[in-house]
UniProtKB/TrEMBL annotation:
Cited SMART domains: cNMP, HTH_CRP
Domain named HTH crp-type: residues: 183-256
GO MF term set: DNA binding; DNA-binding transcription factor activity
Keyword annotations from UniProtKB, A to Z: DNA-binding, Transcription, Transcription regulation
Residues of the Cyclic nucleotide-binding domain: 49-119
Record-linked SUPFAM superfamilies: cAMP-binding domain-like, Winged helix' DNA-binding domain
Domain of life of the source: Bacteria
Keyword Repeat: no
Protein name: Cyclic nucleotide-binding:Bacterial regulatory protein, Crp
GO CC terms, sorted: cytosol
């Protein structure tokens, strides 16, 4: 993830030390879904889809979330236009979503951390509307949506959790519109850093020291500004003693001052 990485499972460790294959076969093996995903033993269950389920219902959810897959840095989990079949719970690593304009211009629309869900964009039209690209080697749980829908009809607490996920996505997109439409460049960058800080803290990581896996260009695209503006704003914050920047390493020195920008 952003500066830290959870081990997806013992199965992932075994995969990492398996005998080397030729490049084509290795990529095919890595991209194929793998068995072994278990919500009941996942360290992220308190912030993921299983957060409000009792042990009995978690076992039933395990029957739906059967597989996980690796997405190597720079590779796509899915692309715009791909048929919608599953949603994905991020177990480790980090992923960005990218929208493409007919003119060819691309815009980063989101950054996702472990415990968060990708693929909801495909529900309404049954095709994905954006690309999901791994910012680092990442692992996702594959959740076939038709199986999830069927289980939601039987498990009301799970249905409520799925509704919350969809609502959270609407709130995120609304917040992004406000960020782009009403805030100055400095306020956008400050809000972005504080948002990452809060999300990392919820996952048990430091809210003040972390690694930004995305590029400055990605940050600028997400915040509706140029690469140069994003870089200058970070440099200004460092000069004012609000943050310390060393490459992709970020330390937030004054959270209160950032919140007041």
């Amino acid at each position: 993830m952003f500066g830290t990485s959870d081990s997806p499972s013992a199965d992932l460790e075994q995969h990492a030390i398996s005998a080397p294959l030729d490049r084509h076969a290795r990529l095919s093996t890595e991209n194929a879904p793998k068995p072994g995903a278990q919500c009941s033993t996942c360290m992220l269950r308190h912030i993921c889809m299983a957060s409000n389920l009792d042990e009995t219902d978690i076992v039933r959810l395990n029957s739906v979330v059967k597989n996980w897959k690796m997405v190597r840095q720079g590779q796509a989990l899915y692309r715009a236009g791909d048929p919608f079949q599953s949603i994905y719970a991020l177990r480790s690593g980090s992923i960005k979503t990218v929208l493409s304009h007919p003119s060819g211009r691309e815009c980063v629309s989101g950054f996702f951390l472990p415990g968060e869900t990708l693929g909801l964009d495909g529900i309404s039209t049954e095709v994905h509307t954006c690309d999901a690209i791994a910012l680092e080697d990442s692992a996702v749980c594959v959740i076939p949506f038709h199986l999830l829908e069927a289980l939601c009809r039987e498990v009301k607490s799970l249905q409520q959790q799925v509704h919350k996920m969809m609502s959270a996505e609407i709130v995120r997109e609304t917040g992004q519109m406000m960020l782009l439409g009403n805030l100055t460049a400095e306020q956008r960058v400050a809000a972005f850093l504080l948002n990452i800080s809060r999300r990392l803290q919820r996952r048990g990581y430091s809210p003040t020291c972390f690694t930004l896996r995305m590029t400055r260009e990605d940050i600028g695209s997400y915040l509706g500004m140029t690469l140069e503006t994003a870089s200058r704003t970070l440099s200004r914050f460092q000069q004012e003693g609000l943050i310390r920047v060393q490459g992709k390493q970020i330390e937030l020195l004054d959270l209160e001052a950032l919140d007041l920008r």
